[in-house]
Fold this protein.
Amino acid sequence: MGEITISTLLQWTYTHVRDRHAQTLLARLRISHTYLTQRYFLTRDPQPYCDDCLVPFTDRHLQVECPSLTDLRHRYLYRCCGPWTRVSGPGP
């Protein structure tokens, strides 16, 4: 394992959401710990793969990369945030 240094940590921007539940959801999205993509650890099932792309099912794939979800992203995410906003933080 590599050593964690300041340069390996991404800039964490503070959200002005006062609701504890919303803050928890945003934090889990940022660190990619959601039940949808991590439940295989709890159930001891094999890691799920995207049916369309045949890549591991991750939050980043759902939010940014999967071409079959482009229409949904444009309809729901960009409507409220704009295409310039990234929900999951800075890219690679």
Notes: DSSP finds four helices and no strands in the chain.
